């Protein structure tokens, strides 16, 4: 399997790769998300260590059961060769209705086939009031005209 764009990345292909990842995560389809990674990929997500697509597919439903009405925006911070640094923010609420904005950074490493072989994510959660939410699009892909993280001042 191959998943363009391929490294080494340019500013444009890095932006495309980050948007494709954002779109997959916003689909909340664990299988779709997993296909962007090598079969033996390695993740660190908060304090959880995940290896391979099967563990990704098992992890994501647990995540989205806790993080309800999940909406995510990713933005490239830096890139070189087969690596990218991406910052992100997502909004969600828990089962009690408390809203959060989660902020984080990811380090990504890709194979020549364009699949991600390593993902290291650091994430912090901030409780917010519902009226302070900034991500209001319907569930799924963020509309092309929706502001980016930088445009939102995040």
UniProtKB/TrEMBL annotation:
InterPro entries: DUF1348, NTF2-like_dom_sf
Coiled coil: none
PANTHER family to which the protein is assigned, alphabetical: SLL0781 PROTEIN (PTHR31757:SF0)
Protein's name in the database: Nuclear transport factor 2 family protein
């Amino acid at each position: 399997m191959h998943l363009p764009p391929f490294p080494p990345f340019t500013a444009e292909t890095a932006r495309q790769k980050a948007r494709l990842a954002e779109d997959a995560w916003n689909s909340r389809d664990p299988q779709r998300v997993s296909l962007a990674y090598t079969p033996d990929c390695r993740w660190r997500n908060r304090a959880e260590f995940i290896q391979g697509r099967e563990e990704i597919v098992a992890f994501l439903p647990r995540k989205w059961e806790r993080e309800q009405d999940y909406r995510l925006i990713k933005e490239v911070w830096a890139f070189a060769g087969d690596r990218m640094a991406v910052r992100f923010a997502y909004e969600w609420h828990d089962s009690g209705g408390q809203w959060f904005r989660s902020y984080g950074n990811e380090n990504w490493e890709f194979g020549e086939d364009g699949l991600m072989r390593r993902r290291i994510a650091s994430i912090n959660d901030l409780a917010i009031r519902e009226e302070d939410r900034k991500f209001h699009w319907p569930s799924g892909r963020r509309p092309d005209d929706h502001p980016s993280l930088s445009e939102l001042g995040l």
